[in-house]
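Private note to self, pasted from the team thread so I don't lose it. Backbone tokens:
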């Protein structure tokens, strides 16, 4: 039986890239999203898509049940589903905070709790998708940044609590990663391009599969002595405070 991974938010962007890497490396993947499956993934015989609303306990329960019904086991969980593009602090409402918390934090806690008994059996791993914005101060994303700091804390708490059960819990903190929306913003917003690309040591946008490669490593036996780590995959953006002059 192939190893089985659940990837949340798999219909597009980073989630689609993560699912693709796990499939290419021989895993079976149950992808879940509130949207339909991506065509690129649907053609894989080892990919199953389950539409669910992860903001509710019932939605999370359905995902775990669907995975067990199809594959009979769970070896890894990648908590990727989330909301971005938050607003500045003085424009953010209580409803905004609740909406971002429900998916960016609540789904991570609920789905991980449901999957833990199965990971204890398989000796599996959890990989949470944090953010470079959860490692530094960042303006203009009042509802988003606190939730990604929470993901970092959740990762370290779970790693500490369940390490003796053979479960490893790590996180990946992406920087700016390509998507149609990212591409549009870079082309139309000079300030964003300057901050996110010119302010990045590698000077480019990341690709979804590059986040997937990091997730696969942390979920694999190659990382069997790694837990509680938050791995920035951001081209160096989160550490770049004083770049050299342009050449």
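Design output:
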């Amino acid at each position: 039986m192939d190893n089985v991974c659940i990837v949340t938010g798999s219909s597009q962007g980073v989630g689609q890239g993560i699912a693709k890497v796990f499939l290419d490396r021989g895993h079976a993947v149950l992808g879940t999203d509130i949207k339909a499956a991506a065509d690129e993934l649907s053609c894989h015989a080892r990919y199953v898509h389950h539409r669910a609303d992860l903001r509710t306990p019932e939605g999370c329960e359905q995902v775990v049940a669907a995975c067990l019904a199809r594959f009979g086991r769970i070896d890894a969980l990648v908590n990727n589903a989330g909301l971005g593009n938050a607003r500045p602090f003085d424009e953010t409402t209580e409803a905004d905070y609740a909406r971002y918390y429900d998916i960016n934090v609540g789904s991570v806690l609920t789905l991980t709790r449901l999957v833990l008994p199965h990971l204890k059996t398989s000796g599996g791993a959890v990989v949470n998708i944090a953010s470079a914005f959860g490692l530094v101060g960042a303006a203009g994303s009042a509802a988003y940044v606190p939730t990604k700091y929470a993901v970092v804390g959740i990762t370290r708490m779970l790693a500490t609590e369940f390490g003796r059960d053979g479960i490893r819990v790590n996180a990946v903190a992406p920087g700016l990663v390509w998507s149609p929306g990212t591409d549009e913003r870079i082309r139309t917003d000079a300030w964003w391009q300057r901050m996110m690309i010119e302010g990045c040591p590698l000077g480019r946008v990341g690709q979804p599969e590059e986040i997937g490669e990091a997730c696969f490593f942390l979920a694999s036996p190659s990382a069997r002595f790694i837990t509680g780590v938050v791995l920035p995959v951001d081209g160096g953006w989160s550490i770049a405070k004083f770049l050299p002059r342009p050449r």
